Each structure stands twice: as C-alpha cells, then as structure tokens.
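Zinc transporter: structure, please.
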Amino acid sequence: MPDTDPTPLCAFDVFADGTARKAPDVHTKPAARAAYRWLHFDLASSHLDHWAEANLPIAATRTLLAQKTRPRVACHDDGLLVTLRGINLNAGDEPADMVSLRIWMTADLILTVRRQRNFLMDDVQRQIDENDAPPSSTRMLARVIELNLSRVEDAAFELEDVADKMEEGVYDRGKDAVSDLAPLRRSVIKLRRHLGPLRDALDGLTAVQSPLLPPLMTLRFRDSASRAARAVDELTEVRDRLNALSDHLDMVQTVRLGRNGYLLSVAATIFLPLGFLTGLFGVNLGGMPGQTWEWGFYALCAGMVALGVILMLILRWIRWF
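Here you go.
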C-alpha cells in the first residue's frame, strides 16, 4: 500500500457466498469475483482527505470528511450517501451523546468513516470474520442500519425501564424525592433529539429511486424506518411520563410547604397573644397584679393555658384547621 494512501481500520473484499478476505489495498474496486469491497476509515487517518478527493465524488468527499454531520440520505452519481447516528459506548461518554457514521455506497463499494469509535462496526467486522458477510453492498447497508437500530432500541428500552422503576418508587412506595430524575430526563431528551433526524433519514431512504435499492430492499428499509419511528415514539412517551412525574413531585413539595407554613401560621396565631402576656407580666415594675400573691404565677400559667385552648377552639370554629 503506497505511503500516500490512508490506512483503513479494516478492508475486506466480500463475495456473494458471504465469505470475505482482507483487501490488499484501498482501491475503490474489489478484487476479481468479489461482490463488493468494504473500506472502513477513521476521520483522523492520514491522507484520507487527499485519497477521497482523488477517488470519490465531491459531494461524498465533503460529507465523509465533515467534522459534524446530520442524519440524511442523498443520491449522487452512481452512489448513495447515508449518514447515521449510533449509540455512544465509549468510556466516559453518555450513550445519548450519539456518534456519527458516514457511508458511501455504490454497487461494488461500501465506504464507512467514523469520527469517534463506533462499536457497531466492530460487530460488522466480527460477523465478516465469521463468514457471515452480507452478499451485496445494499444488504451491507441494510445490516449496518439494522444493527444500529438494535442498539438504539436497547438504549431506549433501558431508559424506559429506569423510568418504570422511578415511577414505581414515587407512585407506589411514596418516595417524595428522586435524585436521578433530572439526569434521566436529560438523557431521554438528548436521545430523542438525535433519533428524530435518524428517523427522517430512514424515511427518506425508502423514497429513494435508485438501481441500488431494489423493491425488496426498499421494504427492508421501510421496516427499519418503522423501528426508528417506534423508538422515537417510546422516548416521547418516556419524556412525557417523566414530565408528569416531575410535576407530581413538585406538587407534593408544594403541598408539604403549604401545610408546614399553615401549621406555623396557626402556631403563631395561638402563641402571639400568649407571648404578649408573658412579656407584659415579665416587666420588672411595681404595681403588677399578683406580685405579692403566692399563687400568682400558677394563676397566670393556668390563664395562659385557658387562653390558648380558647384560641384553638375559635380557630377550629372558623375552620382554620
């Protein structure tokens, strides 16, 4: 392989019987009798930009080398350009911070480029190593999409399970605080925001008119689009449930604060006149009634208790509590 060629993460010539062998170079044409060639690159690979400019259409080169992409599908010349987003399984990252995958497909080539590691392509490579390669480039694209959706569905189901347990703790067991609610809502919102464009891109793929997409494959892509739509619907439902849960917790907290404030108001209403009396009788001046009476203190205490009871009865009568 010339020094000016980029080094692929993996390169295979795939045959119609599902077997494959490593490609000796990064030419865009497969070896003799091979159905297609799969080349997988990292965006940071040296010389990838020059190689792409020399071997690929301009539109494909721009998308494959872009720093940021959005899921979409487009036909260019004799090829199909597809950009996807997949679950982020890299250490230290959140799964909802999805990673991009750029794909350029022709009848005899599948070219994929990643910006961050995408474990989805590791699964594809493992299947090829086990002689379970898709027999055509179109079927290879379908498998990549389906494997990607499987990971997306798993992530959506996991978030839904966490939401179920959270609701059970609040509604069934009466928990009044959930520390993980805000991070969960953030993850659901992030994942749903990324899945919306992915769903739209797969919908667009079913409408593409190209010799690369025979009717049977269009049906397969339509099923993938339906799976993406269901995942978006599930995340929408989870988001709404978490919003309702947050509103419920806010209401519980508001009721608790109101009840506590109400009890403090009742206590203040009762003790305010009692405090006035204790302050009044506590002045150190002559002429205070009962100063010389040995039962004066006890009479004052009894009078204050009686006054407190009377105040409570009055508040009860006017339905303060």
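Notes: The mean pLDDT is 88.
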